[in-house]
Specification:
Its EC number is 1.1.1.49. This protein is about 35% helix and about 20% strand. With about 500 residues, the chain is α/β, with parallel strands linked by helices. The structure holds 6-O-phosphono-beta-D-glucopyranose. 6-O-phosphono-beta-D-glucopyranose binds near residues 213, 232 and 344.
Length: about 500
């Protein structure tokens, strides 16, 4: 039985028949219901343009739910309760009439949560529509990424929403912030004095953040080709991870205290000029190769592709933070599609001890690393040096992990999907795990200069075979500084 109290609401899901809603949002809502975290009076309104019989649409939502929720987690009684909460309304989000019908289904005093799983270009029209029928007052709006494709367009979207909603009722999603291990980063850093004293340029040599995906474009070519890996992953997920690693301790856990600290990091990111882009940023595009033992096509041969595209599917870069804590500590970021495995991890490399007393040939072994694994096998591991056991070993050193594997330690507990956590937080009115307007804008500003740099240089993405760790230039990027990507096989 759940111990959290959650107030009742009407959850209006705009774009309810889209991939995100079917694959992630309905399953997340179902899981919240299963965990007893939806109030008995909470209703879910599925809103989409597709006309036709509502019953058939709801049946299709249920069918997808069965596909995306593991069979062992489908409970007949919960499913029945969940589907009874659902209702479907066909409406054109750009026309006023639909909002009138919508308003009739929501009482004027009801708490409405409006989730926009639509292109950002429609957000303004939805806000306007809700305001016109007087359903903006008790409403929290949830905005999916991408919010714009550069600073200017993101401002336009944010400004259009801000006409009707104050910042404290706007929830901008970055689903990485809902991942269990990402939240654990805050606990790790600020509930253990052990790390905080080491968390600076005196003790840390460099930081790596890798978000590698094994999948390719998965039928999303049209969307992805407009965006590319920099806009799709670095501007949001990787920069958010960087902020959580690099930020100063907030004075409390309130949303604004945390977000103020993250913004300071974004403001301190060293600009990368067009001349530096060639040295510090690598973009790649996958060509045919193999994945999990099977031949797979290149990006330009994917379904619905345009054979001329020079959109990147891989980015590796070196970011520097200009402040007292991080001066001289590079942050290497790397993300790509069609990598050898799905892997998201942060590796903090600590500096060597100031004075070395062991056998010289063992020196390359020496290093402490903190590895924070987001997926798969969520966990944290600290690589420490110990002595090898045995009379014949003398003072032979070995590097071994002090390990905290969340899946082993909390074996009985299921690790919730990021969207479950985020939807629950919206229902509770907590903004900690959502992105504030200024964070989005500073992140865009920093990414825009990289895109401008590529344009100025006429840079095209470097090819890499599907199933590899990206172009060789990505290895050169880090070896130039005398380092290597951790764990690449
Ligand atoms: C999304 C991107 O935000 O994150 C996708 O648009 C990407 O391209 C996805 O595949 C990765 O999320 P996760 O949780 O699977 O790492």
């Amino acid at each position: 039985m759940a111990s959290l109290s959650v107030e009742p609401c009407t959850f209006a899901l705009f774009g309810a028949l889209g991939d995100l809603a079917l694959r992630k949002l309905f399953p997340a809502l179902y899981q919240l219901d299963r965990a007893g975290l939806l109030h008995a009076d909470t209703r879910i309104l599925a809103l989409a343009r597709e006309s036709g019989e509502g019953g058939a649409r709801l049946a299709s939502i249920e069918e997808h739910l069965r596909r995306y929720v593991p069979e062992r987690e489908i409970d007949a009684a919960v499913l029945q309760r969940f589907t009874a909460r659902l209702d479907y309304l066909s409406m054109d989000f750009l026309h006023a009439e639909g909002y009138q019908v919508l308003a009739e289904r929501i009482g004027p005093e009801e708490r409405l949560i409006a989730y926009f799983a639509t292109p950002a270009s429609v957000y303004g029209a939805i806000c306007e529509g809700l305001a016109r029928v007087e359903r903006a007052r008790h409403t929290r709006v949830v905005l999916e990424k991408p919010i714009g494709h550069d600073l200017e367009s993101s401002r336009r979207v944010n400004d259009a929403v801000a006409v009707h909603f104050p910042e404290n009722r706007i929830y901008r999603i970055d689903h990485y912030l809902g991942k269990e291990t990402v939240q654990n980063l805050i606990a790790l850093r600020f509930a253990n004095s052990l790390f905080e004293t080491q968390w600076n340029q005196h003790h840390i040599s460099h930081v790596e953040i890798t978000v590698a995906e094994q999948v390719g474009i998965e039928g999303r070519w049209g969307y992805f080709d407009e965006a590319g890996q920099l806009r799709d992953m670095i501007q949001n997920h990787l920069l958010q991870l960087l902020c959580l690693i690099a930020m100063d301790p907030p004075s409390d856990l309130s949303a604004d205290s945390i977000r103020d600290e993250k913004v300071k990091v974004l403001k301190a990111l060293a600009p990368i000029t067009a001349a530096q882009v060639a040295q510090q940023v690598v973009r790649g595009q996958y060509i045919a190769g193999s994945s999990q033992g099977k031949a797979v096509p290149g990006y330009l041969e994917e379904e619905n592709s345009n054979t001329q595209s020079d959109t990147e599917t891989f980015v590796a870069l070196r970011a520097d933070i200009r402040n007292w804590r991080w001066n001289g500590v590079p942050f290497y970021l790397r993300t790509g599609k069609r990598m050898p495995q799905k892997l998201s991890q942060i590796v903090i490399h600590f500096k060597e001890p100031p004075h070395y007393i062991f056998a010289p040939e063992q020196r390359p072994l020496i290093s402490n690393r903190l590895i924070i694994r987001l997926q798969p096998d969520e966990g944290i591991s600290l690589q420490v040096m110990t002595k090898d056991q045995g009379l014949d070993k003398g003072m032979q050193l070995r590097s071994g992990p002090l390990q905290l594997s969340f899946s082993d330690t909390y074996r009985s507990a299921r690790i919730p999907d990021a969207y479950e956590r985020l939807l629950l937080e919206v229902m509770q009115g907590n903004q900690n795990l959502f992105v504030r307007k200024d964070e989005i804008e500073y992140a865009w500003q920093w990414c825009d200069q990289l895109i401008d740099g590529w344009k100025q240089l006429g840079d095209s993405p470097k090819p890499y075979a599907a199933g590899t760790w990206g172009p060789v230039a990505s290895i050169a990027l880090i070896t130039r500084d005398g380092r290597s990507w951790y764990g690449d096989l």
